[in-house]
Amino acid sequence: MTSTSGDKLSTSQTEASEVERWASLIGGGAMVLMGLRQGSLRGALTALAGGGLIYQGATKQSTIQQAQEAIGINQPIKVEKTVTINKPADELYRYWHNFENLPTFMKHLKSVNVYNEKRSHWIANAPLGNSVEWDADILEDRENEFISWASVEGADVDNSGFVRFKKAPGDRGTEVKVVLEYNPPGGALAATVAKLFGEEPEQQIGDELRRFKMLMEAGEIATTEGQPSGRS
Amino acid sequence: MKAVCWNGANDVRVQSVPDPTILNPRDAIIKITSTAICGSDLHIYGGYIPTVQQGDIIGHEFMGEVVEVGRGVNNLKIGDRVVVPSTIGCGNCHYCQHDMWSLCDNSNPKGWIEEKLFGNITSAIYGYSHMLGGYAGAQAEYIRVPFADVGVVKVPPDLPDEMLLFISDAIPTGYMGAELCDIQPGDTVAVWGCGAVGQFAMISAYMMGAEKVIAIDRFPERLEMAKKFAKAEVINYEEVNAGEALKEMTGGRGPDACIDAVGLEAHGVGLEDFYDQTKQKLRLETDRPHVLREMMVACRKGGTLSIMGVYGGFVDKIPFGAAFNKGLTFRMGQMHGQKYMHLLLQMILDGKLDPSFVVTHQLPLEQAPHAYHIFQQKKDNCIKVVLKP
């Protein structure tokens, strides 16, 4: 009897910590989304990664953001998209975590070089054959659950983002949510970069996530490029 | 190679185009030995399916011989004789793994068009518009088959093409149409449309336990075929009111299940037909729902409508009150060929099914324009054309 109840106790303790972990993750997600709504993903991500200062960080950033919006500069572009992939989270997390894999399904990226655990160098295709580059740091990394990153000082395009892997209900695999934000810079680059993700950023990100899903589920990305037609 | 290319409404041409090549590891190249014109190709031919582009190779019902395989295909080899399902499934997504292949998540590379229009992405279909993938079609000498390691069915060498070709599309479509009716012993099933799909739906309905099958069409040769091969009682809706006739033939109840094997170019009679034809010509509705309306009113209370005829967009003046108050069940969709093809092949090998009776015309690929014309206009008693590349 005693040992049974002891087992129960230890089980419920495990459950409690599991619940707690998810609660913090969901709470964190909520903070991020709140940060987004208020205007700055990076602020929210940084605050989350830093812990403790979450509320202050988010509000402070949003104040700066509001000030910037008030004087009409740095209108950030934000996109979010979710897709369900018929694979376990750890597999998807592993592939994504190596940022050098991202250009395989993200057409707007030319290459990503990983320098170390934290820092990587990104080159993106910009319209008219141009490209833009930046260094990014991983801000927060929770195995099989969450990765957030942001460009460092001096980036051609100031940007940040996160990807979240969450078990889908009913044995449907993993819900993968991506949120990206970038600030088109002022000056000569502005026109080039304004359309980094095309006319409809949501659709571009949606397409890229769909290609990620194809690659992970089917092992290849469906295509019709290069097939015959009667068009002259 | 030679291929049938769409050049605008009611204009297909046989053109010289480059041969297809392997583009992905799971691809195979098939040399086509037989390819049919499907009733749903007429919707493309007539210009009713959006996002078909000038120069697109069309056609989706085909069989042939494997001539090349990608490095990801281990279960096919050069020289294999195969039948290929018309809808493309990856075999790995949630839907393929639950045998709902025509709802595949991964085969359509241009899914965003469909997502905007329909809210979700369904499987690609060979030669059936860019919304549905933009894959080159089968009315050609060769075709690239993606995800060839799943779905493709190997067939034995000793039966003629005409016995095997239709497990690519028409037979599984008819079979699924009957299966969706959830037929109980003693049921009466009414089938609108006596083309190939309608014929196979009737035969399947009997196999699943229907006591009586009633066929509805307006062409005497099709009704004759339904009588002779599918053992159906028939209604020519140009001679009698189909709704009233169905009531009379079912003791006033109405059929237990109704199968739509017609789709968006349905013909009606009188004012209603005039209304639909005019609205469609003015682009105020995309699809003519005459059969849908008639089924909703004719079906018995609590009955099932099984819709296999293709619809592409929006329909008008649907008697939804009838459907609601009569408690009807609607089931529909592009067929999940991969789910049924092995079973149907076995039936053919066992001598339980000989589908070759539907073929009325066999023509060389070069005569595709003529074939489309007689099939659309129902000239020369044309019910099913097989093209030989």
TrEMBL record, chain A:
Residues 85-209 form the Coenzyme Q-binding protein COQ10 START domain. Pfam families: Polyketide_cyc. CDD domains: SRPBCC_8 (cd07817). It comes from the Bacteria. This is Cyclase/dehydrase. It comes from Nostoc punctiforme (strain ATCC 29133 / PCC 73102). The lineage of its organism: Bacteria, Bacillati, Cyanobacteriota, Cyanophyceae, Nostocales.
UniProtKB/TrEMBL annotation, chain B:
The keyword Ion transport does not apply. Residues 196-265 form the Alcohol dehydrogenase-like C-terminal domain. Pfam families: ADH_N, ADH_zinc_N. It comes from the Bacteria. Keywords: Metal-binding, Oxidoreductase, Zinc. One of its GO terms (molecular function) is zinc ion binding. InterPro entries: ADH-like_C (IPR013149), ADH-like_N (IPR013154), ADH_Zn_CS (IPR002328), GroES-like_sf (IPR011032), NAD(P)-bd_dom_sf (IPR036291). Its cofactor is Zn(2+). The keyword Oxidoreductase applies. Belongs to the zinc-containing alcohol dehydrogenase family. Residues 25-156 form the Alcohol dehydrogenase-like N-terminal domain. PANTHER family: DEHYDROGENASE, ZINC-CONTAINING, PUTATIVE (AFU_ORTHOLOGUE AFUA_2G02810)-RELATED (PTHR42813:SF2), ZINC-TYPE ALCOHOL DEHYDROGENASE-LIKE (PTHR42813). This is Alcohol dehydrogenase GroES domain protein.
